[in-house]
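Researcher: Structure for this, please.
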Amino acid sequence: MTAVPEPVVAVCSTFLGAVPDDLVTGLYLRGGLAFGEWVEGHSDVDFTATLGRRPTPEDVATLRTAHEEVAAAHGGSPYLDGTHVLVDDLRRPPQDCPDAPDVHMGTFSDAGRFDLSPVSWHELARHGVAVRGPAPDTLGIWTDDDVLRDFTLTNLDTYWRGQAAQCRANPAGASVPYACEWVVPGAARLDHLLVTGQQTAKSRAAWWGLTFYPEEFHRVLRESLAIREGAFGPQYADPLERARDVAAFATHVVAQWEPTTPSSPTGISASTRFPSGASGQAQAGS
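Model: Predicted structure, token format:
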């Protein structure tokens, strides 16, 4: 079982201590923690909570108050980010799940769709860590590798294509350390799934990238790891040079999965997207 770091235990204990056991029947960790990755000061606590019933307005108010207690006790160090659903919801595709109470960076929503995605369902099913409740692999959580792959391709073609364009258009914004830490491992994380068929955590994706991407991108990969976990010394004296490399890396990753047919809502068919520079490595798939 993945060891849970003390700051994570503290945040989870505050939340669980503020809710009735019959309301929150399970609390599961996802994200980097599910892969054994925790970088204090950089990682958040991604969770899925299972509820004993479809929440009433009173239940939603209880959840809101619980997250307010978490914020008061811990601030954003770390944030507790996630959603609250029924176990039955997890047994169906996430698009079939009704809107659910969620919280992101301290902001609570009575009914939202944050984290109702194939990424969350698959992380929980295959890597989730139980803080309260039965083991995730006993819950019968829905998975479909083809759907996960197509969702990842769409995310890359929309959100991450936009991030790459923004980095190119705004070098000053892309020059800050957080941009490198967010964009480089984030894009590599999606590429890792598409190439290997396996989900992973941010730092692990960057380390993988040092073995996968062309040498020209190794410096910015090392820089992302230097910022995120102090694995290397600083790689750049000029922040604008770093910004150019962040933009180039994101552009490169997106370009590996360019649309080739108009057969899906995003103009891309999962069966016809092929990385143009994957160095002969195996493609992801079910």
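Researcher: Any notable elements?
Model: The radius of gyration is 19 Å. The CA atoms of residues 223 and 234 lie 6 Å apart.
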